């Protein structure tokens, strides 16, 4: 059972392999990921979704958000999800719409969900607590797996580094976990001058410092649906987008599966099936 805490230890942890599986069309049952899942019992399966942009003028944001809930509930019905993480840009410059998207859409998810702000949510700890009952940085525990979620923007949408004091406290708290995953809407590194990210070298150093921190997950750039790396192949995964008026031609989300041997598998789902994604192994 997952729990959420506002704060954030003790020993060293085991290693976990991380495998990137081919991208798949929605709910395919012949994908390598599902074949792999059948052959090894899972202790956690969850979805990451981001960039809904509810309320953006000129977009069909209500239909996009409704589709997201339907896709995730169908995935849960077919394959079981333990939870959903909604990683930023829930609304589009309208924090007043956060209670609406929660009550009319998120609360209709068939599984527990956790949220974190993006730069278009214009939110801080007080805004987030008023909307969701918890602040804009917190931890989630699922047995020997820990999650660290933190805000990467201010109430005006300016990109900021996450609270690294909180990040360090969280990672110190989780040193006895087998696997720790970090969720930040905006990545903490600007890979090149054309990227829309921000440089946070202290955050990157923290991610690399703890051997049980296996990956970071981001949204923000709607065109990205794969993986980039920092340091010695530390992975940063992206999940495309659900709404907005730019990005990949399709809309989708990312699945992460962790088996009882602590092997981690992840793949991107082309939920809208428009267009069909190429399937590649790398």
Structural summary, described in words:
- This protein has 282 residues and is α/β, with parallel strands linked by helices.
- The chain has helices at 32-39, 61-79, 98-104, 125-132, 164-173, 201-209, and strands spanning 2-5, 18-20, 24-25, 42-49, 83-87, 113-116, 137-142, 145-150, 179-184, 213-218, 227-230, 234-238, 253-259, 264-270.
- The strands form two sheets. Strands 1-7-8-9-10-12-11 form a seven-stranded mixed sheet, covered by helices on one side.
- The radius of gyration is 17 Å and the shape is globular.
- The two termini are 33 Å apart.
Q: Report the strand count.
A: 14
**Global geometry:** globular
Helix content: 10-25%
The low-confidence parts are: 3-15, 26-35, 276-282
Strands side by side in the biggest sheet: 1-7-8-9-10-12-11
Average pLDDT works out at 88
What is the CA-based Rg, rounded? 17 Å
C-alpha termini separation: 33 Å
Descriptive labels:
282 residues; alpha/beta; 6 helices; 14 strands; globular; disordered N terminus; disordered C terminus
What would a concise description of this structure say?
With 282 residues, the chain is α/β, with parallel strands linked by helices.
List the helices and strands and how they pair.
Elements: E1 2-5, E2 18-20, E3 24-25, H1 32-39, E4 42-49, H2 61-79, E5 83-87, H3 98-104, E6 113-116, H4 125-132, E7 137-142, E8 145-150, H5 164-173, E9 179-184, H6 201-209, E10 213-218, E11 227-230, E12 234-238, E13 253-259, E14 264-270
């Amino acid at each position: 059972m997952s729990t959420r805490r506002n704060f954030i230890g003790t020993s060293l942890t085991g290693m976990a392999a991380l495998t990137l599986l081919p991208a798949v069309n929605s709910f395919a049952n012949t994908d390598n990921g599902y074949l792999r899942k059948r052959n090894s019992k899972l202790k956690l399966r969850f979805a990451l979704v981001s960039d809904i942009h509810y309320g953006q003028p000129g977009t069909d944001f209500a239909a996009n958000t409704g589709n997201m809930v339907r896709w995730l509930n169908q995935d849960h019905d077919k394959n079981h999800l333990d939870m959903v993480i909604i990683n930023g840009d829930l609304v589009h410059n309208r924090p007043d719409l956060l209670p609406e998207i929660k009550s009319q859409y998120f609360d209709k998810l068939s599984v527990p969900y956790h949220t974190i702000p993006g730069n278009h949510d214009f939110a801080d700890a007080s805004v987030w607590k008023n909307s969701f009952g918890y602040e804009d940085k917190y931890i989630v525990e699922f047995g020997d797996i820990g999650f660290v979620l933190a805000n990467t923007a201010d109430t005006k949408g300016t990109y900021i580094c996450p609270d690294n004091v909180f990040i360090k406290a969280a990672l110190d708290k989780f040193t006895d976990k087998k696997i720790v995953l970090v969720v930040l809407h905006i990545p903490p590194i600007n890979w090149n001058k054309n990227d829309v990210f921000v440089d946070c070298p202290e955050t990157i150093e923290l991610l690399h410092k703890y051997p049980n921190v296996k990956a970071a997950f981001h949204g923000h750039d709607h065109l990205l649906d794969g993986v980039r790396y920092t340091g010695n192949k530390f992975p940063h995964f992206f999940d495309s987008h659900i709404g907005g008026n730019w990005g990949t031609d399709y809309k989708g989300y990312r699945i992460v599966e962790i088996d009882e041997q602590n092997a981690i598998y992840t793949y991107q789902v082309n939920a809208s099936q428009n267009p069909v994604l190429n399937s590649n192994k790398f």
